Amino acid sequence: MPPKKKPAGKGKKAAETPEPDHAGEEQEKVPVNTSMFSLENEVERKVVKPSNQLELTEDELNQEMLTVLKSTNPQAPKSIVRYDFNEQCFKPEAMVDQFTIHYRTDGWLLHSESEEGKQQLEAKKKEAAAIEDFKAAISKATEADEQEAKQYRNQFNFTERAAQTYNHGTRDRMAATEPPTVLTYSGSTTQWEIYDAYMKDFAVQQMQNESRSSKKTIAEPKKEKQKESTVKKEEKEDIMHTQNMSAAAKVMERVMNQNTNEDITQDFKYWDDQADKFRENEGTLLPLWKFTNEKTKKRNVTSICWNPEYPDMFAVGFGSFDFTKQGRGMICCYSLKNPSFPEFLLYTESGVMCLDFHPQQSSLLACGLYDGTVQVYDIRNKIRTPIFQSTARTGKHTDPVWQIFWEEADLNKWMQFYSISSDGRVTLWTLTKAELLYEDIMELQPHAQALTSIEADSAQFSRLESGCCFDFNRLSDHLFIVGTEEGVIHKCSKSYNSQYLENYTEHGMSVYAVKWNPFLSNVFLSASADWQVKVWDHNHSKSLYSFDLNAPVADIAWAPYSSTVFAAISSDGKVLVYDLSMNRNQPICEQKISKKPRLTKVCFNPHSPVLLVGDERGCVTSLKLSPNLRKALDNTESKDKQVQANNMKTIVDIALKQQ
Amino acid sequence: MANYSLVKHTDMMAEVRDEAVDICMNAVEKFPKDLQKCTHFIKESMDKKFGSPWHCVAGKGFAFEVSHETKNILYVFVAGETGVLIWKC
User: Fold this and answer.
1) Which residue ranges make up each domain of chain A?
2) B83 → closest Cβ in A183, A186, A189
3) Is B3 on the interface with A (CB under 8 A)?
4) Is B81 in CB contact (< 8 Å) with chain A?
5) pLDDT digits (tens, 9 = 90+) for B35-79
6) Do B69 and A191 touch (CB under 8 A)?
7) A contacts of B8 (beta carbons < 8 Å)
8) Cis amide linkage into residue B53, ω under 30° from 0
9) What are phi and psi of A539, to 5 degrees?
10) Considering only CB atoms, which chain B residues are within 8 Å of A204?
11) Contact B65 A185 (CB under 8 A)
């Protein structure tokens, strides 16, 4: 409200004090007008007066008016009458409320020392303190952050790199499975249908029971029939043991062996030691197959013999050289095509000591046993029993038979063979149709030179020398040589059975083998336990050549292809091959075949350059001769027998000249 | 009345069939009064054992024509008065 107008208003009020009601009204109106004026005055300064405004003079306006405020409300009703129930009449109200409120407002100020004021002040202080703390914390944190940021900022000058791998294109694949097959089935269920079904089932069961009881009665005769049929079936099912099957199995076995031993087969056929081209007078032996099996392991190989008809087939005799370890003997027939198992094997009652195939009838195998028996087997027979056998009545030897040798058939075309034994007899056996006839060709009388005086006394007991080995001359029919345990070699003739043609006494211990040269008829070879191998001319009592092997010589063999080549085996496991045309003093090959077991027998294959060596553990090793050891075999000229004989003859002549 | 179950029609394998017949017999014995629970039980156990979805109808009198996977239907009379048909489709 503009203050300058108030005096005017007051002036009016003063003028109208007698009528406070009017004054009140005017008071309300005036401000409205003045406010309008004030707004308009600013624009136009126009004074508008109400028409009924009193015109007052200056004096009247300046005249002082007194108004007194009283404690009565002019608008309060003065005569309020209420019914008084106590007095049962109307009564005027004595006290009228004079209190009116014209304006009212609540204060918002507080006294600073009042309770509430103090609380608010404290709260403000706390708030301020909290804000301070908060700010301090923030500033600290930011400081720390800055420090940290300083510490770790980009120490290694990082650069960010990114790569994206190649995304394979996606591809959709679809396949449809066949829906399972669907069938429809329809029917119905009612009580009577169920009943019928059960009745039907019941009837069927009864039928079955009846038939079962009737079957029982028939069953017994049927069983017998079944038995018969099973027997027949067994006969039919026995295919596994037919001849066809065994033949097929044999073929299969061969094929398997060929597969497993293919490298050896290749070696056997094609491999030659290339080193032989660059050295003279020296050769090597290449071990090929080893023939052994569990059954033969504890037996000694006592003899090896090639079959004359089949070049790959040979028989091996197993026995024991040890007197204290005698047992059953065994003969195995191996083929080079099957090193894993013998083609056939048969057992003998005593240890086998010697074997020989008949040169024409290649299935006939003569064998001598440790107990003195000689036997002849026909290996074609399924039944492994000898077709001929000597017995105590028919001149059986009383000591081990050391060697056996087929003779040409006699005039009656009976087959014959010789045998030699420790009991001092050389016997000719003849195979007649019914029996085995024997004839003593020679009894080895101790010859005079060998007898000391004591032995001369014991000679009264007609003690004979023990024969160890013999060999028959192929060219002069009647001639043969015998090696004895005493170390003497006798030259004998079939014609005189009481006299020796010659005695060769250079060996000091038992002679294990004597062999005629296959080409030159007057030369033979002997091997002895006194470490010596000697080459002899039977016309001379002194040996031509002598080789010392530093170990007992178990066996020797002439090569079938050359007159000057022979192989010897020593008991310390060495095989030595000599070629007299190349070197008359040293072997051209000396090779140790086995570490431990003693070697017992050696044998050349008559056709291919293969040597068989048997040892005391029942193992037969086949060795291939390198080209230097078989020069004669590759040379066409040297296949002429006469050439070979001449070769040997020159060597013999050289030796004779030296003597 | 007979108390064994009589297979009226099936093309199941022998082992599956034996098992299924066993299940049906058990269910009917277990809930002789409540065929709804009985069928529910059969369906649940067949689903569990041989893979869903199996369907089952059991009752003393009803007629049906259903399509089913081959080797997966069994129509059996259980305990002489209840017919049970189960099939898979």
Assistant:
1) 283-447+463-658
2) A189
3) no
4) yes
5) 999 999 999 999 999 988 999 999 999 999 999 998 899 999 998
6) no
7) 187, 197
8) yes
9) -85, -10
10) none
11) yes
Of A52, A45, A58, whose CA–CA distance to A29 is shortest? A52
User: Chain A contact for B70, CB < 8 A?
Assistant: yes
Q: Specify the amino acid at residue B54.
A: W
Q: Are the C-beta atoms of residues A565 and A578 closer than 8 Å to each other?
A: yes
- Kindly report the CATH number that applies to the domain delimited by A283-447+463-658: 2.130.10.10
Q: How far is B46 from chain A (nearest CA, A)?
A: 18
Tokens of A299: 């037996």
Q: What is the ipTM of this complex?
A: 0.88
Per the structure, how many domains does chain B have? 1
Walk along chain A (659 residues) in steps of 10 and give the mean pLDDT of each run: 42 42 44 48 72 84 85 81 89 82 85 89 95 94 78 70 88 90 90 90 91 68 55 59 84 87 86 78 85 85 90 90 85 87 87 89 88 88 83 85 86 85 88 85 73 51 78 85 88 82 87 89 90 89 88 90 89 88 85 83 88 89 86 72 84 84
Q: Which of A180, A184, A197 comes nearest B77 by C-beta?
A: A197
Residue B35 belongs to a domain with what CATH number? 3.30.740.10
Contact A184 B85 (CB under 8 A): no
Domain hosting residue B20, numbered range:
5-88
- What does pTM read for this prediction? 0.55
In angstroms, what CA-CA distances link A489 with A30, A201, A467, A506, A525? 185, 104, 9, 9, 11
